[in-house]
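Chain X:
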Amino acid sequence: MDLNDEGSHFELKEIQTLSGHTDRVWSLAWNPATGTDDTQPVIASCSGDKTVRIWERSALTRSWDCKAVLEETHTRTVRSCTWSPSGKLLATASFDATTAIWENVGGDFQCVSTLEGHENEVKSVSWNASESLLATCSRDKTVWIWEVMPGNEFECASVLQGHTQDVKMVKWHPTMDILFSCSYDNTIKVWAEDDTGDWHCIQTIGESSNGHSSTVWAISFNAEGNKMVTCRKHISTLTGYHDRTIFSVHWSREGIIASGAADDAIRFFVESKDSAVVGPSYRLLLKKEKAHDMDVNVVQWSPGENRVLASASDDGTIKIWELATNST
């Protein structure tokens, strides 16, 4: 069905609630190498309970089950988790100031490397497209770039200083080795490597450049990598839809933006074909009230199945959803 058909009606169907974490769930990540014709989808989630859980959907029952609990490595909240593009490694960032690298060895997840250097809480971690670089960011206001070496070794390539407050998130461009970081200082900084191998800030996106007038919480790119969506208390072009802080935003392959916020709701936006508006404009496709009992910390589209979404919340649960056409 055409997303831009104003007569199209959608509903968000809850497929399953995944329970097991004993504290708020901060982040989740779909394994990009799973969910294809011959493999079932796998999700990693991380929590204030200091653990990471690995969830897999059963081919037989289509039900999601917890396959592993990664514990006794981080000593404080695990704030961020992300799979490498090949799906072989999982990186987890923690308030204990470390980033752990996990590898699935014969069905058993092992911590194969621990990255140390940040002064305090690590808030986010991101792999580049070629899996040769890893970025981390922290409350210490710095962004670190790590070079991935043979044998699961990681070498610090650069410490990027420029933000004046807590750095909330790092995100690599989907195709180029350009890094984006967003911060409590209300800016997004764009970092790139010069010909001599040094990393520099090549652009700062702030309020003066149609940026944000409050904390920038998250960044997501469209599939082509030529558009970026960011979120704060109100998304600039989508102002007025959320009553509370927006914590997460994610762009699907077919161009649907999902957002999760402190008002416990999940919303979906699509580009509007309004010829009267100069440049792209977006309209609200669907709002799901009370998607969770508490703040929605993260929304992530499945990389393998169209219109399947996972969300996680302060209520300690992960939910799997399908954005379906309403048949009524």
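Chain Y:
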Amino acid sequence: MLFYIVLFLGIISLWWHWRARDRMKVTNLTGKYIFITGCDTGFGNMAAKNFDKKGFRVFASCLTETGAKELKAETSNQLQTVLLDVRDSESVKKVAAWIKAEVQSEGLWGLINNAGIMGPSAPTDWLDIEHFREPIEVNLIGLINVTINMLPLIKQAKGRIVNVSSVGGRLAFSSGGYCPSKFGVEGFNDSLRRDMKVFGVNVSCIQPGLFKTPLSSPVKILKEKEIIWNQLPPSTKKQYGEEYFQKDAAKKEKLTKICLNEDISLVVECMEHALTSLYPRTHYIIGQDAKWFWTPLSKMPAAVQDFLLLRNRAKPAASHAN
């Protein structure tokens, strides 16, 4: 009995020590420079506003002039917006040169690689290579390109890099280019973290579940899928059956309602912890669906994963004939 009491107290002590360590903050961060991509809406938009209020000097990249204008109108004069398409290498280089001129010898304390798109989500045999290319170029190649161009400034400040991945980088819950791009982000993040450790640069990975943002809009995803369906050859439509599209949409809608997290501030809080904690975590798993379903499922045997994920897909007509 004494052994179990000592063991219990030991576990409680370790947990308390971890919690205390987790709350320790880096001092004198006011006025530090950070760069955030993808600030038109969603996580990036809220993050830019949050860090601006906290006293950071924020460079916020937006894809559209409208997004940049609206963000600027809601923030202080200290926040600066810049138009950037992360797929455009020349644009990335120009933004990096501009930031270098702004930060000068101080360097860049934080880089948050947040820009991303979902891309079409549909069965693989509905898609062509271009459907895969766009999310991979934005979510992975664009993220790597921005990081490479900002690394000298981050190393100069011995700062932080935060890469926004997804539970889709741990478990391929949908078809299309999104999950392959996020699996790539996970691999790049891990190698980058090890490479930068010796330089005093901390690298963290954000792994959100399904959150209510324009990226994961069910209406947008369904519309993109319907366009692809309407362009399919008759032979493919016959294999799936005319009722497939609606039946699958109903199943996806049901799963979305179960998994959807509405409070996106949870993601921004993790970004803040990664940039301000004395001991940032290597990974942040965010959302009840991510913590209790997607992440545990990602560690299970493939047979279990397939069984559960296929239950949330409609069966093609051809499968009934076999």
